[in-house]
Write a structure and sequence with these properties.
The protein has three helices and eleven strands; from the N terminus they run ααββαβββββββββ. The protein is an alpha+beta fold. It has a domain at 110-230: Rieske Iron-sulfur Protein (3-layer Sandwich), CATH 2.102.10.10. A hairpin with a 5-residue loop joins strand 7 and strand 8. The longest helix is centred in the N-terminal third of the chain and has 55 residues, at 14-68. The protein binds FE2/S2 (inorganic) cluster.
């Protein structure tokens, strides 16, 4: 039997007790370790629960970012509306342009050549620049030559020193009566309709021309009424 009164005696009883303590501490350690072991389990649970709260702004920002970016449908829609707007604008422009036609305002074909008494015998180029008209006075008549070459339409010049009209383009020559006699001009220059107005002035109308196409055997219209004014 061990002497319990001996303080120096070994303490075998404590060993089992210690063993029991050890055994007793094991559940305690288990209990203490249990929370420690539960921590890793609880941590994901907490993060899982907290995840929706922290992910919501992130998802919102992400969706806003996606919404701000042009998607294929948005691009298609914008392109469609752009085409429609361009089509409507073009139609509007054409509709408004309709009220402003591109009219060519040509000068009047009617010109006032003044009084017959203003002219002496011969050719006058007074109205060449303004009206493209040469006024020719002869002893019995006055007529107005439309200064347009019958070759290609240039304006022949009056050459008083040579007593003829000369076309500067290809050299056609005309007599003072406007009859072609040299160069490629095929026929005489035309004459404008002339008449006297109420004041006795000569009124010429270049839209009514008298011609004599000799090369084709045409009729001489220079003696028709309106082709000259008798004086
Ligand atoms: S245009 Fe007058 S000669 Fe040719």
């Amino acid at each position: 039997m061990p002497n319990t009164d001996d303080p120096n005696a070994p303490v075998p009883a404590k060993l089992p007790a210690a063993a029991g303590e050890i055994g007793a501490t094991k559940p305690a350690e288990k209990a203490a370790a249990a929370p420690a072991a539960a921590k890793p389990v609880a941590t994901p649970a907490v993060t899982k629960a907290a995840a929706p709260k922290s992910a919501a702004p992130a998802a919102a920002s992400a969706s806003a970012k996606v919404a701000s970016e042009p998607e294929p449908n948005q691009l298609r829609r914008r392109l469609t509306w752009t085409c429609i707007a361009a089509f409507m604008a073009t139609n509007l422009f054409m509709f408004l342009r309709f009220f402003f036609p591109r009219a060519l305002f040509e000068p009047s074909t009617i010109c006032n050549l003044g009084y017959p008494s203003d002219y002496v015998l011969g050719v006058s180029d007074r109205y060449k620049q303004q009206d493209r008209i040469y006024v020719v006075r002869e002893p019995t008549q006055i007529f107005a030559i439309f200064a347009k070459c019958t070759h290609l339409g240039c304006t022949p010049d009056w050459k008083p020193g040579e007593n003829k009209f000369k076309c500067p383009c290809h050299g056609s020559g005309y007599t003072p009566e406007g009859i072609n006699f040299e160069g490629p001009a095929p026929r005489p220059m035309d004459r404008a309709h002339v008449e006297l107005n109420a004041q006795g002035q000569i009124i010429a109308d270049k839209s009514r021309l008298y011609m004599w196409d000799r090369s084709k055997g045409g009729r001489d219209e220079f003696n028709d009424p309106g082709a000259f004014i008798a004086v």
